[in-house]
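Appendix B. Chain record.
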Amino acid sequence: MSGQSDTAIEVRTLGEKDVPALIACIRRCYGESYPEPDFYEPSYIRSELRAERLVSVGALVGGRVVGHLGMRIPIPGDAVAETIAGVVDPDYRNAGLMSRMGGQMDAYYQELGIVALRHIATGAHDRTQRKIASSGGVATGVLLGHVPAGTDYRGIEHGFGDARIAAVVYFQAFGRLGALDVHLPRHCAAMVSDLYKQLGLERRLMPCSHASSVEADSYIRAWTGSVRHDTRRGISSLRFGSAAPATRQAIEFVEETLPQCQAVAYADVPIADRRAPQILDLLHDRGFCFGALLPGTAASEAVRMQRVSGAPIAPWATMTASPGGRALLEWISRDCERVK
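Structure tokens predicted for this chain:
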């Protein structure tokens, strides 16, 4: 640390007036390469804070933000949130700031009714992952091309070179999620069932129905889909069913959208819906492999499928912090090779 004592660092909730200092901290950690491009946009951060979709905790020395941990609530009122923008200024690392900011964030979980978190942690190093795993987080996926090549992890070396950088998905529950029936196709049912056992979640895997091709087509057509293309990160995000804000029929949507997708495409499919196996199989047939299990409520529990095309990846360089994470990385890498 750069000569400052630990007591000189204040940890508190950040407000709109702190946004310029937060962006300056992001730049000291990543230059212009931070994978969440919205965190360079003051108006976006302020609007998210006002709408309470983002809860932001910072570590400050005077008015300078030297660390940050955010919590994003993707579905308003849902009991599961996502951690975001967990960064520490290179001059203030190894001072326990992430633990202090996490402690401050704990108070918001009870206040907002949050009982579980999803973490998407870089695979360029395992520093953040170790903290998540030691706090009870379980690896539930690996996104092989989540971070653009050339992302500047200042002060941290990694082995990805010119390839896109993987991220490891963790789920951490500190309250009770209700029981659910979930619907999965055969190609990922056994692996997801094992993840549920590790998580200790009450989930009943319903047998995949043997629908005729006409019935299956009808199931898929009844779904809606939407897409967001992020050209800066090279990622397209597809959403289906209850996760989709738009109203385009899913089967036509998939066929029309895939040729327009970025190098990395994700597809979130809610698996509490009995139609999920049909759309998951359709995606698998179109070159998607399993990316991550995203546990949640009936509205938010999903499987994220992933497709990486036209961009180099380096699974062997991915750092994981648990044997379960390493096993998932190996399984997903093999599945990705099979569907190419």
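Further analysis of this model is presented in Appendix C.
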